[in-house]
Amino acid sequence: MKRMCLAIPRLPSFQCYRTQSAKRYVNTMAQHPLIAVCQMRSTADKVKNLQVVSELTAEAKRRSAAMAFFPEACDYLADNKKDTVAMAEPLTGQTVTSYKEIAIKNDIWLSMGGIHEASDKTEKINNTHIVISNTGQLMAAYRKLHLFDMDNKDTGVRLMESDYVLKGTEIVPPVPTPIGKLALSICYDMRFPELSLTLRNMGAEILTYPSAFTYQTGAAHWEVILRTRAIENQCYVVAAAQTGAHNKKRVSWGHAMVVDPWGTVVAQCAEKTGVAVTEIDLAILENVRKNMPCEEHRRTDLYPKMQC
């Protein structure tokens, strides 16, 4: 028997599950905002990808989520650099306009990213994580700081993001949302703890890592890193994910998840397209920080350049 989001019907093609008990879910869903972490398999077909985003958003809203989170490359995932660059759009383009319409239609906040943002200054593009309000307003745009470059001669895997993506230059302050103060990052950023520590110091309550994690690295490091970022920063972590084979060259790990400030995985998708719904309880966050006051003990006097 397939597992699904506990006690909540789902669309037939969507697989996901919760790790919290049904009793806790029922007792708290009216008290704390719900979020939906989404998982999908993007291809080079932008129309089909947009349809998946629309369906998953509708499912998230049906489950009473206040905000839905989508993975890196939710707009498209081409199999070559030329098409990846050529298909990119500005944030004023049709794809983002469609995302805004979806947010308004479903009265829900959206985290989309990173999407491929065209640049008029260079032949390269930006990998950009955007937040859209339930009224269709673009609330924030973060451009990926750490680019994933890997050229492994032993395995034959070559993924050089810097070949076609501009390196971001700014840490975006946490964004006030109905679920809490949301910090924006993208995928490979999760491997650099100084970024998340800085965001925590800027007031972050929820760290986000929308991702298209490769299968090999995902199997080894995905959950370990996400739980670590949650524990060391005492924040919720939301990691939407790409899953499955996108083309002949690329397969993603999947396992989109939400981790609470204690490091517990509270919601997770299986390996297919789907939505997992869970609550964001900032009282838990405050309790963890109060009872384990790490920030009071941080020796910033010995490493002030990190500004953590």
TrEMBL record:
Q: Which PROSITE patterns match?
A: CN_HYDROLASE, UPF0012
Q: Which GO terms describe its molecular function?
A: hydrolase activity, acting on carbon-nitrogen (but not peptide) bonds, in linear amides
Task: Give one Pfam family.
Answer: CN_hydrolase
What keywords is this UniProt entry annotated with?
Hydrolase
Q: Which domain of life is it from?
A: Eukaryota
Among CDD domains, the record links this protein to: nit
CN hydrolase domain residues are: 33-282
Tell me the PANTHER family matching this sequence: DEAMINATED GLUTATHIONE AMIDASE, NITRILASE-RELATED
Q: Name it.
A: Nitrilase and fragile histidine triad fusion protein NitFhit
Q: Which organism is it from?
A: Ooceraea biroi (Clonal raider ant)
